[in-house]
Every structure is written in structure tokens, then in C-alpha cells.
Design a protein that fits this description.
It is a single chain. With 117 residues, the protein is mainly alpha-helical. The chain has helices at residues 35-43, 45-56, 68-80, 86-95, 97-111. 50% of the residues lie in helices and 0% in strands. It comes from Ataeniobius toweri. Belongs to the cornifelin family.
């Protein structure tokens, strides 16, 4: 009895591969490409974080919970296939929080067709 020849590596399918090759639709400092988001981000960032979480399909309170924006940014990045790491997500939301919040809101509005790019 001969052993069969293995021609394909077992488990070499696409399981567990999550290749992000995309980019954000707008830059970090492109606030004036959507004046509504810019105004909300400047004058009432809490309202913008609740709006962003709600438009993304999450609980609106997620933006008010510590680490909530980082978690939402990570999930958004993975969903839309945008390059990055969890560490980068944490750093961007911590050091550039308002600009990043505006960019996330613009991304959702662009992907939902609410505004044109």
C-alpha cells in the first residue's frame, strides 16, 4: 500500500489572512472637505463621536467610552481594508483625536454615499 502524495499544503487556504491594502478616503487634516463634520468636530466633538458611532452601526455611547474610538477605528479599518495596526489606531486616536474623529466621520459619510469625494 503506497502513501498518497501531498500536492497542496493542508490549511493553506485564505483562512486568517486579512490583508489591508486600502487607504483612508481623505487625509487626517482634510477637515474642510466636509464642513458639517468640521464644525461638529470643532464645537461639539461628543456629538460627532455619537453621530459617527451611530452611522457606523454601533451604540452611540461608544464614542464616550475610554478606548471606544480606538476600537471603532480598528474595526472600521479592518472592515474597509485600510492599512494600519492596532498600535497605530491607539496612537492616532490619543494624539490626534479630534482630527481622527473627523476623518472617521468623513469616511463613513463617503462610504454611505452621504457626500461625494
Amino acid at each position: 500500500m503506497s502513501n498518497p502524495v501531498v500536492t497542496n499544503q493542508p490549511g493553506a487556504g485564505s483562512y486568517g489572512t486579512n490583508v489591508q491594502t486600502g487607504d483612508w478616503s481623505t487625509g487626517l487634516c482634510s477637515c474642510f472637505s466636509d464642513c458639517l463634520v468640521c464644525a461638529l468636530g470643532c464645537f461639539c466633538p461628543i456629538a460627532l463621536s455619537c453621530y459617527t458611532a451611530n452611522k457606523y452601526g454601533e451604540n452611540p455611547c461608544l464614542g464616550c467610552v475610554p478606548g471606544g474610538m480606538t476600537a471603532m477605528r480598528t474595526h472600521m479599518r479592518l472592515t474597509y481594508g485600510i492599512q494600519g495596526t492596532v498600535c497605530n489606531d491607539a496612537l492616532m486616536t490619543f494624539f490626534c483625536g479630534l482630527c481622527e474623529l473627523c476623518r472617521m466621520a468623513r469616511e463613513i459619510r463617503i462610504r454611505n454615499g452621504d457626500i461625494l469625494q
